[in-house]
Design goal:
452 residues; mainly alpha; four-stranded antiparallel β-sheet; 4 strands
Length: 452
Amino acid sequence: RAVACLDAFQQRVTWMNKEEPQHASYQDDEIDLRDLALMLIEGWYWILGAIVATLTAALGYLALSVSTYSTDLSFTPTAEDGLRALDGMPGVDYSPAGVAAELGQRLASYEHFSRFMEENEAGRERLIDAMDDVDAAVDLSVRQRRFFFDNLSLARPGDDARPGDDGSRYGLALSYSQSPGSGPALLNGYYRWAERDLAQTLAGRAERAVDGIVARNESRMAAHLEAYDEEVAANITRLQEDDRIALAELRDQLEAERQAVIDERQERVRLLAEAERIAERLGIERPTTPRDLGRQGGDNDIVYAEINAQGSLPLYFMGTQTLRAEREVIEADLGQQVKTAEIREIEKRIRQREQNRQIEALEARDEHSPFIEEYNALREENTLLQANLIQADDIEVAEVIHWAYEPTSADSPRHLLILALSLVLGGMLGVMMVFIARFAGSLRRYRFQKNA
């Protein structure tokens, strides 16, 4: 049938050439789509066979290939409240962006990932589940390192900007094979471990900062105590010297006061003796008054004038007996000590100086620390610092925007796409095989006719 169609096609071309010779070149290039359609229909088995072959190859590839999945989580710097407990510690000042950047560095560090595997048995099992078992014969540490660098990636702010991103988002992505649920569990576990490890590190730094401040305060306290001990010793020495000088001066004053009393008594004796002689001349033996003596002329006017001038009676009005008795008593007690108010005051001050209670109190102290304000202030500060402990749970390192979730489908291989491509490729390959088969048949017939 195909040969008959080809002969009819050649006869028609010959007839058209006779009818319209001027368009021969144009008619030779013309292609009849009906003939092409008939040719493809007749070669349907070639097309079907090619499609079956490509579909079989695609199904075999899908059956032998390992499915790969991907998951990711993203986080952003925490709010100011997350680091309030940490920044409240003296000597500590962290910014949310700086802490988030440090967390990102830790997540991107293989040393931290390896330590996570060493400390977390569940994480190691999830890593083995997420690995491709093609290299099962390779050492686990080598596979672990290869898996980290090939399958785990960290996107920092600005690396992959998304619509609505404020430029502070971090992304941690993981590609893996085998179990679909192993990757998200591994990624979330690694992030939680890194976040807690960083929180413990920050808490440890704060504790060391506090310990450093406490140690410095203790050194300053010891210096204050030593300086105060020296100050107290110097103060005692000064007080003792002041007491010695003051006692010497007071004793000099006491001696001077006593001598003044003696001098005063001697002056009294002189006055009494003088008054006694006057009274003897006047004939006054007993105490009297001018009225008792009466008004007299002559030298006695001088006496009255003296009384009026002095405003009090002269001593000689006491009489010779009284004056003599007082003079003899004073002369007898001239060397005896008299306790005047000034002498008593000086003796009191001497006793106070001889028993300096301030020196006794300073020497009786067991310790001087309660009397040093700077020392007590530093000790109080250390007490408050040591009581102000911070725990890792009080620190919020970063805020997770979304956790890693189990993917709904594998990233590769993409089954529907591969099957669709295999159908298209099989159809194209079948058409090519139909043309090649028809060309080969025509070539054989041509050679047969030529040889005949």
